[in-house]
Design a protein that fits this description.
The chain has about 190 residues and is α+β, with helices and mostly antiparallel strands. Helix content is about 30%, strand content about 35%. The chain contains 3 helices and 12 strands, in the order αβββββαββββββαβ. It has helices spanning about 1-20, 90-105, 165-185, and strands spanning about 40-45, 50-55, 60, 70, 75-85, 110, 115-120, 125-130, 130-135, 135-145, 150-155, 185. The strands form 3 sheets. It has a 7-stranded antiparallel beta sheet with strand order 3-4-5-11-10-8-7, sandwiched between helices. Strands 1-2-12 form a 3-stranded antiparallel beta sheet. Strand 7 and strand 8 form a beta hairpin. The longest helix is centred in the C-terminal third of the chain and has 21 residues, at about 165-185. The chain starts with a helix and ends with a strand. The model has no long low-confidence stretch (mean pLDDT about 90).
């Protein structure tokens, strides 16, 4: 009787293990498709010595000392703007600080391409830093008139930085930053 039980147990185990096979299901290759609404821009009048155009899909929150946060709720991202007056020939230190803020992300960034911005008609000069990789910020910039005004900004997401996942939003928001830089005017 013991041998029959042992054979029965052995055969049952083989059948159970053989029936646990999953069918191989080939999944088609695909890429994540994120679509964002086409941006529509409006001019924002601030109580500060600068104005700019902003995406209607974002909300603006004014902060102390002419700082501004532009929040994108659909992307869970915020563009932090900081304004400073140029005083006592401090333009060099403001420029160095802005560059340092961008390059502090080299530890996690794969690359940081720079894009100079020059608009002599509006007296706006600056630099746009596209930070590629799993860095805390994906874009930084500054604009100045080189005499009185200095505005810098940094883009942050409310999520752990995973460049592959947030890349579509990064591309969209970098265009918004470019639009801000192109439309800024000084008072």
């Amino acid at each position: 009787m013991k041998i029959n039980s042992l054979i029965y147990l052995l055969l049952s185990s083989i059948f159970i293990l053989a029936s646990c096979e999953d069918d191989v299901l080939v999944k088609p290759s695909a890429m994540l498709r994120l679509e964002y609404p086409k941006p529509e821009y409006r001019t924002v009048e601030t109580d500060c010595p600068y104005n700019f155009s902003m995406n209607d899909n974002a909300t603006m929150v004014k902060k102390k000392r002419c700082g501004t946060n532009i929040y994108y709720p659909n992307m869970k991202a915020t563009l932090y703007l900081t304004y400073q007056d140029i005083r006592n020939n401090n333009l060099d230190s403001l420029l160095q600080d802005a560059q340092k803020l961008a390059y502090d992300h080299t530890i996690k960034a794969n690359s940081i391409p720079e894009q100079p911005f020059v608009n002599p008609d509006k007296n706006v000069y600056g630099m746009f830093y596209m930070i590629n990789g799993n860095a805390a910020t994906q874009a930084e910039f500054y604009v100045t008139d080189s005499i009185n005004h200095f505005l810098n900004g940094a883009l942050y997401f409310d999520a752990k930085p995973n460049f592959d996942s947030i890349y579509p939003a990064v591309v969209y928001l970098r265009e918004d930053i470019r639009k801000l830089m192109e439309t800024i005017t000084w008072e």
